[in-house]
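Hello again, I could really use a second opinion on something today. I've been staring at a protein lately and its backbone has me curious. Can you walk me through what the tokens say about the fold? Take your time with it, there's no hurry, and the full record follows here:
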Amino acid sequence: MEPLIQVENIHKIYNPGENEVRALDGVSLTIHRGELVAIIGHSGSGKSTLMNMLGCLDTPTSGRYLLNGQDVSGLSDNQLSEIRNKQIGFIFQGFNLVANLDALGNVELPLIYRGVSKQRRKKIAALALKKVGLEKRMRHKPNELSGGQQQRVAVARAVAAQPPIILADEPTGNLDTKSTREIMDILKGLHQSGRTVIIITHDDDIAEQADRVIRIIDGRIEADYHNEHKIENENMSREDLQA
């Protein structure tokens, strides 16, 4: 099966020359459809730069990035914007909600950019909010919602247009324990429904909930492994249910 994401020897260099910074230094990785992947690293490790590459928010200095078999490494800003709009749903640590729009309006935004009619996008947005448990908060603006509720609006916005890839950048970084658990349950549910979910994090507890963990240090991948402990726990849970 052809990989959904294929990164080949990507470098990202800032300030080329004597004071250059190698944010990514020869990164290669493959992600298939339906995976739940955590990319983990400390501040300055290169994980945010890698997220920008995977999300088509930036282009590499050298190397190739194939998304759905298409080389997107050298595309224009407009071409990258179109790919982002159709194929990637973003969830950010800071929520990135529009303050003067209610929850429904915020979720509608990517659908407007896609040219979805007003009546249909309201229906899609309402359904997305219902799926994250906010059907009673659709008319509330961000400042009328808790942090966990704001992040659920952001999740609904990311999934409303049903993009094949969900890219979550520190999605629980500003949340308390209860809200963190709720958001992770939603992300794992999206994965179980067939989405490819990529979580960027510095938190080992979050990373260990993924099926696969990619550790990045100083712009290089230092480890890439499947989370056997999680798989064993899931298998044990299935056995309990069948008993």
